[in-house]
Design a protein that fits this description.
By secondary structure, the protein is of the alpha/beta class. The chain is 39% helix and 18% strand. It has a domain of 272 residues: Ribonuclease Z/Hydroxyacylglutathione hydrolase-like (Metallo-beta-lactamase, Chain A, 4-Layer Sandwich), CATH 3.60.15.10. The protein has a seven-stranded mixed sheet with strand order 8-7-6-5-4-3-16. Helix 12 packs parallel to helix 13.
Length: 390
């Protein structure tokens, strides 16, 4: 009798705890039996996987059903493939690559990965143009070199002018002399320099000449497919609706994203590389289940750190990066408290510590933490996080 009463009160306590959590976050906490196809086996229907986050490279995978999106490709193609293998993702199954902005730590492996697996890439038009210009850097020239170039062009024009006004027999004699000189440089017989090359080298030379003729492989900015989107206008890729929003950062047209898995009604957001949190970002980050949010630097460490003062001013500006204090302020005053998981990302290796970022965030959401919500994770540069499955 005593044992039965104890079991009854234990079940009643557990049920009350679940109802309390649901009442505190009624629209966020969900229990989905559909995730389980057999006892002990979980189908990762909807998930976010942070492959890397930091100043040396950023990449995140968002997946729902058969749709897999890569947000940014800031690592080399080889490293992206290695990290995807570690978390059980296949790069050939990527549906698209979405780019937040054109800075190198977000696009360093983009062209190689997209070409290798023929993945379409989604940019804003301004970001695509900025990335294309970055992939075709303009050659700089010293003033002395420019003077030499101008002198050579002046001499060439003078020679053309003199030749145009020269008598006809003089021009014919010069052409004949030039032809004799060129014939004298060619050896006798049917000798061909290509015949002395190994077959593989010859093939490489043919492929190189073919690529130069087509202009495809030789172009570092060539992508198999490019799609444009605009901040504030939703679009869909497979089973995921994408809501891009503008963020304040020193790039051409930087964006954050909210991803909505339609079949499961799950929302995941990526908001990094922003100098502060404007009203449009606060509105976009409401009612999300997973939030990847920047917590870049500790203010005191940045001020006392090794960066030049100009770089410190850039980081601290309203188009720089979000500090631990600014991240905590958002979590305390504007965050609705309904996320399953909060991931702190883009931590500076020089000007931050994971412990400091975690401490600031935990203090900010201490009144909103619950049994099944607001789990706090720290994304690192060195290794990927385990997939966050919902």
């Amino acid at each position: 009798m005593i044992l039965r009463c104890w079991q009854y009160f234990e079940r009643l306590f557990c049920l009350s705890a679940v109802l309390l959590v649901r009442r505190s976050c009624p629209h966020r906490v969900r229990f989905r039996a559909s995730r389980y196809t057999a006892p002990g086996r979980i189908v990762k229907a909807v998930r976010m996987t942070v492959l890397a986050s930091g100043s040396k490279g950023n990449a995140t995978i968002v997946a729902a059903g058969q749709t897999r999106l890569l947000i940014d490709a800031g690592l080399s193609c080889r490293e992206l493939m290695r990290r995807m293998a570690l978390v059980g993702e296949d790069p050939s199954s990527l549906s698209a690559i979405l780019i937040t902005h054109e800075h190198l730590d977000h696009v360093s492996g983009l062209s190689v990965l997209a070409r290798r697996f023929k993945i379409p890439v989604f940019f804003t038009e301004a970001t695509h143009r900025a990335w294309t210009r970055m992939m075709h850097p303009r050659k700089t020239m010293t003033y002395a070199a420019w003077l030499d170039r101008m002198e050579a062009e002046r001499k060439a024009r003078a020679e053309e002018t003199a030749r145009a006004h020269a008598p006809a027999h003089t021009v014919v004699a010069e052409m004949a002399a030039a032809e004799e000189a060129s014939e004298a440089q060619i050896p006798c017989g049917d000798y061909n320099q290509q015949d002395d090359m190994p077959s593989d080298s010859r093939l490489d030379a043919e492929q190189e000449s073919e690529s130069e003729a087509t202009g495809i492989k030789a172009d570092p900015a060539f992508l198999p497919a490019v799609e444009y989107f605009a901040a504030g206008k939703s679009f869909a890729i497979g089973e995921i609706d994408v809501d891009p929003f503008t963020i304040p950062h020193d790039a051409a047209d930087p964006c954050g994203f909210v991803f909505h898995a339609r079949t499961e009604s799950i929302r995941m957001a990526v908001a990094t590389d922003l100098g502060y949190v404007p009203p449009n970002v606060k509105q976009a980050l409401k009612n999300v289940d997973v939030l990847l949010l920047e917590s870049n630097h500790d203010l005191e460490m940045l001020k006392d750190g090794p960066y030049p003062w100009s770089v410190k001013q850039r980081v601290l500006s309203r188009v720089g990066h979000l500090s631990n204090a600014a991240c905590a302020e958002f979590l305390m005053n504007d965050y609705d408290g309904g996320a399953h998981t909060i991931v702190l990302g883009h931590l500076s290796e020089q000007n931050n510590l994971p412990e400091l970022a975690r401490m600031a965030a935990e203090q900010a959401i201490s009144g909103q933490m619950s049994l099944l919500g607001n789990r706090l994770l720290i994304a690192t540069q060195e290794s990927p996080l385990d997939p966050i499955c919902l």
